[in-house]
Amino acid sequence: MSLLSLRAVTKSFGDTPVIRGIDLDVDRGQLVCLIGASGSGKSTLLRCINLLEPIDDGEIFLDGTDIAEPGLDPRPVRQRVGMVFQSYNLFPHMTAAQNVMLAPRRVKARTPAALDEPVRALFRRFGLEDRMDHYPDALSGGQQQRVAIIRALAMEPEILLLDEVTSALDPELVGEVLDVLRQLRGDGMTMILATHEMSFAREVADRVCFLHMGQILESGTPEQMFTAPGHDRTRAFLKRVL
């Protein structure tokens, strides 16, 4: 059984359909990259998986349980499905460590003393231990995005959703964030990544899905998708971005 399965998921904003009957299976430990033009539905799909947007129809199964049932409390799901956004969304009046500890303290009732060592270990692992007591405005964009990833990991999620996490960064800072994702990939973290970084998707993804107008038109291994895509629209998109 796949860790995450979507069946015929649809989502509209008013009269505008954004997700049109998407089916997707993600196995434990897989990295799935979503590619496609802006407005193709990548970000909305991630927000639907994390229940930040209610779906209009379809099913989303997490370990066999439909988490998209109307009236279901989304909070336990969001403890299991972490999300990192394009914008870092760090609280400016809190240090990096305080930002990371906030959710485990409030949601899991963990004390600062209990969190100190595991949080410090995360900062140390991603090269930011000396920045734990810095406020966001004293950090570079790449450092802030790494803190945002650490914040999601501090909740010990089973799946990590990443929405264009490098698109707001200066080019020279992109590499340090992608290095973090490579480390997580090596750990076997289950991830779904919406990205415009085609070379990274080709290097590390288990599967690449091309979205167009709210549908997955084509999916396959990076080798299949980048060397011999089967759909005309996939070929046209890759020709523009590669």
CATH topology: Rossmann fold
**Helical content class:** 25-40%
Task: List SSEs in N-to-C order.
Answer: EEEHEEHEHHHEHEHEEHH
The CATH class name reads Alpha Beta
Q: Main β-sheet, in a few words? A: 6 strands, mixed
- Head-to-tail CA distance between termini: 35 Å
Beta fraction: 15-25%
Note the overall shape: globular
How many domains, as an integer? Answer: 1
How big is the Rg?
Answer: 18 Å
Structural class: alpha/beta
Low-confidence stretches: none
Mean pLDDT over all positions: 95
Number of helices: 9
Plain-language structure description:
With 242 residues, the chain is an alpha/beta fold. The protein has one domain (4-90, 158-241): Rossmann fold (3-Layer(aba) Sandwich). 39% of the residues lie in helices and 25% in strands. The chain has nine helices and ten strands. Strands 6-7-8-3-9-10 form a six-stranded mixed sheet, sandwiched between helices. A hairpin with a 2-residue loop joins strand 4 (57-62) and strand 5. Helix 5 runs parallel beside helix 6. The longest helix is centred in the C-terminal third of the chain and has 17 residues, at 171-187. It is globular and about 55 Å long. The protein starts with a strand and ends with a helix.
